[in-house]
Fold this protein.
Amino acid sequence: MLKRTEGIVLKNFPFGEADLIVTYLTRDSGVLKVFAKSPRKIKSRFGSSLEPLTYSAISFIGKEDANLPKLTQSDILRPFHTLRENYLRFVDISDMLQLNIKFLPERERHTEFFNLLLSTLFKIESDSSNMLYTLYYRIKFLEIAGYLPSLNICGRCGKRIDGNLKNSTPENGGNFYIAHGAIICEKCSTDLNDFIRVSTAALKFYMSLVKWQLSNISRINAPDYLLSEIGNVINSHIKWLTEHR
Ligand SMILES: [Zn+2]
């Protein structure tokens, strides 16, 4: 059966002498691995369309239960090649792609994840100096997946944390307990360890970030220390989920 959809290349992996296994995030079939015959040969009809991040219209054939459908066509809609040019930026974006591979079951249609990735890549391409997009992406990904950490109420007793912070100084804040994926108040955390201290400013920044739309991000100029504080919480949370889920 021939199928057509759109896909963003998450990764590719050499197979045999000249073939590739390509993992896509597709609009209609979620994460999908396909077999690409001889793309590594010169003058392959696939050209550069199988490079990570490339957004293409693809066709593949294979029975519904075939474990590796065969790619028959891939026409580039957007190469996103500028996003591969800056190494550090690309490492950051590769982490976004990895999230899809790690968290999403194969061949389960989930258009929200596809739209989030595609629209974020377009934004990063047009506004490459703003480092907030990749953090925003991680937060929104976790939200759609149902793993968004709670930073405004105690993960145990439900007490509002921001209520505590009214008269606090910027050095105050909350403790994010990695194994609980939440801020836990002092009363509830006497038997716990392994936390990350999060400043009041970072907690407030996070709560706004969760509410903002992608289209607003270009107007926000967040200081580096907030990005790195929240980035650290989110990355620790993702790492813990990856290891324990
Ligand atoms: Zn509590």
The mean pLDDT is 91. The first helix runs from residue 82 to 85.
